[in-house]
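Researcher: Structure for this, please.
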Amino acid sequence: MEKYPIDPARIRHLPPRFSWLDQRLVTDAHLRRCGRSAQGLYLFLAVVSDAQGLSYYSDKSIRLHLDMDQEELLMARASLIEH
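Model: Predicted structure, token format:
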């Protein structure tokens, strides 16, 4: 079966700086195992990482973007590592 878009002008195009998240975060219940701070940190790191999955943001910068204090950031990171 051939499929055609209803409105070709509305087809999304990937921007030059695109990132994505793996659906297994939901289907394998990874998100459910982490608290909201860890979820936010994971999302932030996934969005800002380069093609090799590396992020060069400092803890201070991450805390500013996510409105976290140092202890919350450390706990969120530990939760991600644990899970």
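Researcher: Any notable elements?
Model: The chain is about 50% helix and 0% strand. Residues 18 and 52 are 13 Å apart (CA to CA).
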